[in-house]
Amino acid sequence: MPEAQARRRAAREHKVTTGLEALSLFLRDLIRDGLAQASSRPYSDWDTQAARLVDAQAPGVARLVRRLPELLNDPATLLVHIGRLYLLCAAWIRRGDLSEPEQADLYAAVGFGLNQATLPDSGRAGWWAVLGQRLQQDDDLITRLTWLRHGTHHALLLDFAPPGRPLPPGLPVGQCVEAEVCFAPSAAPQRAVLRGEANALAPLGPLTAGDPEHLLDQHALALALNPWLERSAHLLGPVWLLPASGQLVDAHNRALPVGGDEALRLELLARGGGEALTLFGEWDGHAFLPLSLLTGETLTLLGRQAQA
Question: In sequence order, which residues have a C-beta less than 8 Å from that of residue 27 and are 6 or more positions away?
Answer without folding.
Answer: 82, 85, 86, 89
